[in-house]
Amino acid sequence: MASILIIDDNDAVRTALEVLISLQGHRVLAASSPDEGLRTLAKEQIDLVLQDMNFRKEATSGEEGVALFHATRERYPTVPIVLLTAWTHLETAVELVKAGAADYVAKPWDDARLLTTIRNLLELRRLSVEQERSARRRAESRAALAQKFDLCGLVFESEPMRDVVTKATHIAAADVPILITGPNGSGKEVLAAIIQANSTVRGGPFIKVNVGALPKDLMEAELFGAEAGAYTGATKVRQGRFEAADGGTLFLDEIGNLSMEGQAKLLRVLQTGEFERLGSSTTRRVKVRVISATNSDLPAAIPAGRFREDLYYRLNVIELKVPPLAERKEDILPLAKHFLEDAQKLSVPAQRALLAHNWPGNVRELMNTIRRASLLSTAAEISPADLGLVMAPGTLEMVPEREPDRAEIEGALARARGVIARAARELGLSRQALYRRMEKLGLKE
User: Fold this and answer.
1) What is the pLDDT of residue 299?
2) According to the model, what pLDDT value does residue 430 have?
3) What are the C-alpha distances in Å from 421 to residues 69, 118, 370, 430?
4) Domains 3-128 and 152-323 fall in the same CATH topology
5) Whole-angstrom distance, CA of residue 356 vs CA of residue 333
6) What is the pLDDT of residue 424?
7) CATH entry, 152-323, from 3.40.50.170, 3.40.50.300, 3.30.450.20, 3.90.230.10
8) Dihedral of CA 6/9/15/16: which sign?
9) Total-model pTM
10) Do 153 and 335 contact (CB within 8 A), yes or no?
11) What is the spatial distance between Cα 309 and Cα 274, in angstroms, rounded to a whole number?
12) Low-confidence ranges of the chain (pLDDT < 50)
């Protein structure tokens, strides 16, 4: 049951609305003046306001309604406000909708249309409250993690990322190999740093190797070291990364690119802690915690003969899957604001553009996009044009939003079971925009 406040000086209007809305099971409160309405808002928990535009018989300008709207919006910014307006105030109502009013209803109103508007707005408010509570829970959860563990400055808000980070902190102290999987640019290296920072060897070295960037003929020398003369150009003894990481952690990124020979040596080190430098018969022993990462499908590479099955299971004692940025939309804006220069802000249209983008390059693409926009923008606020996302080929204009056709609108309405708010979200439209398209096409609610 929702609490709805009606503010109108006409007794007949208040009575008619009270009867209509209370029959839907809602609690209805009424006020005959702006002052009485604001006093009621101060005392009661109100979920939606229906307000008139004039409150004196001789008044026709709508100024009182405008003043009431702004006073309510300033004090209670999350409460949806529906304007009750005569045709003479339509332009004023439209301006107030742009300023944040939830909707407007012309007098005399259509009962079914008004009830649909109320139902949709209450549903949106319910979802908004749930999202706010969920966001608070996520923030509290992240704060609790940050108090207990070193998160290495990782920025996240989404539940999928929170789950991955929670798992990483819980297994950090276990002396077992960990495999981190996920697409390029999703944050696998930062997750490895979190594991190292909260491990029992956090005081030891943390050595990072991008296996994918190493030439195959130098990969073994890089990992295991080489004696002078072991290969052309090796004029002195070279210490390998395993030796450098002794007593700490070795992070092997893009492990799927390691040669079969390198895989055999890596397997031996993981099993025994022993290896030989290239060109040497002396066996060396190290104690290294190995974290590996890949964007490759290692299980598919095993039957193809590109990756050893025994090595895969040795590396994959525990697997952490980092989701792509497209699957954790809640992280986009916090990350974007983190990458911004201190004095700059993101405009609301720019924020919408960021949320609408699929981010195939993940966090790395987002970081580069924001930093480029920060450098190129001369304004205090970043605009969609500064971001350079989804550009039409051969132009400098943003691609226009595609207009949904009749079939798409009918389909969205059917799936939403007539709830305009849900259909509008699916189509990427505001409620008012969807109403206008429905009226244009002759579609009924």
Assistant:
1) 94
2) 66
3) 22, 11, 31, 8
4) yes
5) 11
6) 74
7) 3.40.50.300
8) negative
9) 0.61
10) no
11) 20
12) 391-401
